[in-house]
Prior knowledge:
It comes from Theobroma cacao (Cacao). Residues 1-22 are annotated as: Disordered. This protein is of the alpha+beta class. The protein has one domain: endopeptidase domain like (from Nostoc punctiforme) (endopeptidase fold (from Nostoc punctiforme), Alpha-Beta Complex). The chain has helices at 76-80, 95-100, 114-126, 142-151, 157-160, 163-170, 184-200, and strands at 20-25, 30-38, 41-46, 70-75, 87-88. The longest helix has 17 residues, at 184-200. The termini are far apart. Zinc ion is lined by residues 58, 60-61, 63, 74-75, 77-78.
Amino acid sequence: MGQPQSMLIPHERKPQPGDHIYSTRAGGLYAHHGIYVGNDMVIHLQAPPKGSGSSTPCQKCGYKRDCQGGIIKTCLDCFLDGRSSLEFYEYGSSIFEFNIKKRGSCTIFHTKPADEVVKTANDLLQGNGSKFKDYNFFANNCEDFAVYCKTGMAVSMQAVGGVEAASNIFGTGSLFGMGVNLGAVGVYSLAKVIHDANTAK
Ligand SMILES: [Zn+2]
């Protein structure tokens, strides 16, 4: 008998293919993001495995928790990893909404059509001629990966200089939501600041 974990999660809104979903972890300190691609499956960027690879594979999707990292496709249960929080990242938010909402929950950028989002996620999963298959490009940032699938825009604080640099500039020290949620203008100007700082060294 498989474990009917999904039945225990009180999702009111069902994810649809192309949705950017996330689940908060460590008491909301950070979140894991992914693209729902249908059939209860999610494509997401997972941190490199820490374990020795001795974990047993998921009966549903075959994911081995301690053996696989990078861009992976797992069932929703493996994506949630035992957490009940399933939230939806909002696209096309107004500046006003963007400023009052929790960082890492929305962006003013607009999403591509759902089928294109799913295609991009699958292309990245398969590494079809894309430099973005490189795990390091996203610098371990699952939010950047999901936003890229949704928008085609790779605007990453990590990719342009590191989250510490961004934190220093803003003086927040907060990891949560750092990324595209600074707003379009903020991202580009900050990216330039970091770029200039790095090239000046
Ligand atoms: Zn699974």
